[in-house]
Write a structure and sequence with these properties.
Elements lengths: L1 E2 H7 L5 H9 L3 E3 L2 E2 L6 E2 L5 E3 L2 E2 L7 E6 L22 H4 L4 E2 L8 E7 L2 H8 L7 E8 L4 H9 L1 E3 L2 E3 L3 E8 L4 E8 L6 H8 L4 E9 L2 E2 L8 E3 L2 H10 L5
Parallel strand pairs: 9-15
Antiparallel strand pairs: 1-4, 2-3, 2-5, 5-6, 7-9, 7-17, 8-9, 10-14, 10-15, 11-12, 13-14, 15-16
Helix pairs in contact: 1-2
Length: 243
Amino acid sequence: MERLQKVLANANIASRRKSEEMILEGRVSVNGEIIKTLGYKVSKNDNIVVDGQSINQAQKVYYLMNKPTGCLSTAKDDKGRKTVIDFLDQEDKDKRVYPVGRLDFDSAGLILLTNDGDLTYRLTHPKYEVEKEYLVRVKGIVIRKEVVQLRKGLKIDQVLLKPKYVHLLELDKVNQSSLLAIVLTEGRNREIRRLFEALNHEVKNLTRVRYDFLTIDGVERGSYRELKIHEIKQLYGHAQIKS
């Protein structure tokens, strides 16, 4: 048995919060009875109807993609720009998956796609502290003082941006660039780029190489693979509130 709003979210009807609003508005019925109580539990055999349309409790699927630059991490775009969904085979597009979180248009690397609303919530909410690791190539030589600043965090637009981990990997004095590894557990909008802009270092390349324990090893840019059962269980196991 699962909560009705969770089932609606997992079926891609709406976000969990929006699903709760729909329930309170009397737009959802179960087995012919309108339900206005949050937390009402349903089974897989129950007939759930939203706005007069019966829903299917979709089978959950999980994909790991190595996102290329130049595409949006969204299910669709009103302006017709390429999205991560465009890289899926048609049969996988039909499963109505969506990206977990976001990866900037001009960033590359690991992004997860699923139709599992519960896991998406766990992986993207800051309270679960799920790690995302990035390799960042920036213009200029990053000095030790700047690495210390990044580790302590920088206040930008009245918000403290503080990575969980920062490590300087390489200084390329010939091409005047630096390579760093950065780990985030929250990931605000364009956080890494904003951090380096504050230090007057332009980001040349940004690639997410790890999401929790998952990596892009063996997955070519623009390709994807289905997660294994033990990987899905491990994600759920790691996405717990840290005490």
